[in-house]
């Protein structure tokens, strides 16, 4: 039914385009047009389609909750709980679809009949109201074009409005992220004190088994379960290992590319190194788990060290390889944009190339390089799959790179993989972790971007 | 220290520094090389499949069919091919004990019933005769044949028993073990059995997700970029939109997964595990990438084009739609393809919205539950069976193939269609 209405609106709008254009050509025989004939068509089509479609969309969104309100209004005065009302409504719905297999009460049957009745009324009134709005608005637009009013300006204003709405998508996404993270997190902190979460030393979400919805929530059950310190420590530890790999290699290759490399080497080596950034992270995770982990373990055995097969070193090292191209290309850009006269001045004083780089160019480019490193750190902190597959899933508080640790992202996956139960502290904990991840990366990104921007302005 | 010595030292330092730079580039390239070699060397065997060709006697009595009459399709469909299969396996070693018969059965994939039945349906002439039929070998023997399983370790640590290996070697000597291109890897859905698992279901899941992602992200991003670049007044609000876009581009992908879970599934009640939700989540993630690319290419269109159109009496909107946007389209398209390639390789957000479910049917619409190629890699990598390791590598090869293909396409569009001004 819905798709039929939708298609009807589209078809009518399309045909009114041709109708409007034809009308314009008729007018043209004895009057001067205010715009090209196609704008008369667009004008009529927009007035035909847009209001009807808007009403149709709003109606479809609000109809279920309005029907629900009418059905449950008979029972809401009986002092039932929200959960019981929900359950009752679900029963009514499944009965009306003939899929109900529980105990049949007179109340239920009456409500189901009422529900079907309402649905029918809603359906037909929707058709009638949407179509009559369509006819009314098209008629209005038709009288307008018959009087030969301006049509191009309204059409362009409408288009501009659509463009503007599209540009709001980014804001809506941000609001959506904050909304989804914040609501769950607030509920989480109503059960678990903020202090326990930020300073607690033990993280065992598995202890918080999924609770039956009818049982009351007992906060004492969760004491010493959601202490995020080991997770935060693990996150920064693995990011640190990654940066220990990525910074030297990325920075040195960036410097070499910018200052020494021949044109040909730049042309070929740069895109090849950038392939490293394009490989999906799950592939790195598989590589770390299958090759690097066992390799480090064997290496450790031959040196007499005990290395866990899922060590922080394996995950962090592979993550570092992934981040190399971010740092190398950004620092390459930054170094190339250092003005040539700084170099010339240094050479004129008799400095060698490497001395110029170390004493003149590097300090001049430092803010930009710091910015690129911060972006790399933010990548490392937000990276998920490598840690999930190559490092452990148990949250160990350790500073030994040969043991396994876990990160914020890995714990979110561990908690939310499989079935989730909303309203459970365990699920909410994942959202609280997500919020902390969002805030940390947001701050890092803002700082990094503003540092890079300031640096660029300095030399432009 | 005299002057000369100091100079030599400084030149040595120069050489050293250059060497460090070269070494760093070499290391980065070496990582890539090791990585690709490892994936290819473990993965290429998955494109071969091991079959066992065994003599099958389509005897009417064994199938409980009428020997004098040619069986119809229905007769064959009703016949019991399980018992028939067991009888056939016994003919490989007539002296087999009860336990050994079970081991014989386990040398073949559990689809042997279907394979025997379809062979007869396709070759009705072979009814009543003994013919050679090709059956899928079990995962363990497949791995043994490909040399991925060591054979010289004690029997209790091996998946294939001594007895199975004996029969297998005998078949191999008779030339009855053949290795062919593994078409089922591309046509089968996921399976718990490594020898039958394929990427068709996850490929369709990826395809649907990417299509949903493209159909949402591309128009919205293009229109948003046009607004911000051509129409937006310079004020605080548009600055705010811009900051938002730049930050979204750097938000970790898993946060978008939480958004999909907390809003799309919990609030809007869209169906879990479906490419529809996956595609919407990915589209929110690729949106900033495409907006940034589109804005850059709109910026690159020289003002003289706009001025010329305006001077001819076109309105701002006409100038934009007829002149600016078409000129900026190649750059936007190549940015879109790169954004989609990123989305294609994304795993974490899809795991959160439930696209990790085991799906053994090939999805037909974006509303059916499905996995995606990277999630399939994750699922197989987490399973313990040795046979999945080569499958993971092969799946990675397929995924990398698509990524390289998309990136080359983006480069091609950029070089071929983008106008160079100045």
Spans of chain B of 5+ residues with little confidence (pLDDT < 50)?
A: none
* Structure class of chain B: mainly alpha
Strand proportion of chain B: 5-15%
Query: So, CATH architecture of the largest domain in chain A?
Result: Orthogonal Bundle
Oligomeric state of shown chains: heterodimer
**Mean pLDDT of chain B, rounded to whole units?**
88
CATH topology category name of the largest domain in chain B? MetI-like fold
Describe the largest sheet of chain B: 3 strands, antiparallel
Give me the secondary-structure category of chain A: mainly alpha
Mean pLDDT of chain A: 86
CATH fold-level topology of the largest domain in chain A? MetI-like fold
| Number of E strands of chain B | 3
Domain module count of chain B: 2
For the record, give the distance between the C-alpha atoms at the N and C termini of chain B, rounded to a whole number: 55 Å
Classified in CATH, the superfamily of the largest domain in chain B is MetI-like
* SSE run of chain A: HHHHHHHHHHHHHHHH
Question: Largest sheet of chain A, if any?
Answer: none
Structure description:
- Chain A is mostly helical and 460 residues long.
- Chain A folds into two domains: 2-150, no CATH class; 229-459, Orthogonal Bundle (MetI-like fold), CATH 1.10.3720.
- Chain A contains 16 helices and no strands.
- In chain A, helix 11 (312-336) packs across helix 13 (353-382) and helix 13 (353-382) runs antiparallel to helix 16 (425-459).
- Chain A is flat.
- By secondary structure, chain B is mainly α.
- Chain B has two domains: 48-181, no CATH class; 200-417, MetI-like (MetI-like fold), CATH 1.10.3720.
- Helices cover 64% and strands 5% of the residues of chain B.
- Chain B has 18 helices and three strands.
- Chain B has helices at residues 3-43, 60-63, 73-78, 81-90, 98-105, 112-122, 139-145, 162-173, 184-187, 200-231, 236-248, 253-265, 275-300, 303-311, 316-344, 348-352, 373-382, 387-417, and strands at 48-57, 130-136, 177-181.
- In chain B, strands 2-1-3 form a three-stranded antiparallel β-sheet.
- In chain B, helix 10 (200-231) runs parallel beside helix 13 (275-300) and helix 13 crosses helix 15 (316-344).
- The longest helix of chain B has 41 residues, at 3-43.
- Chain B starts with a helix and ends in a 5-residue tail after the last helix.
- Chains A and B meet through helix 5, helix 6, helix 8, helix 9 and helix 10 of A and helix 1, helix 10, helix 11, helix 12 and helix 13 of B.
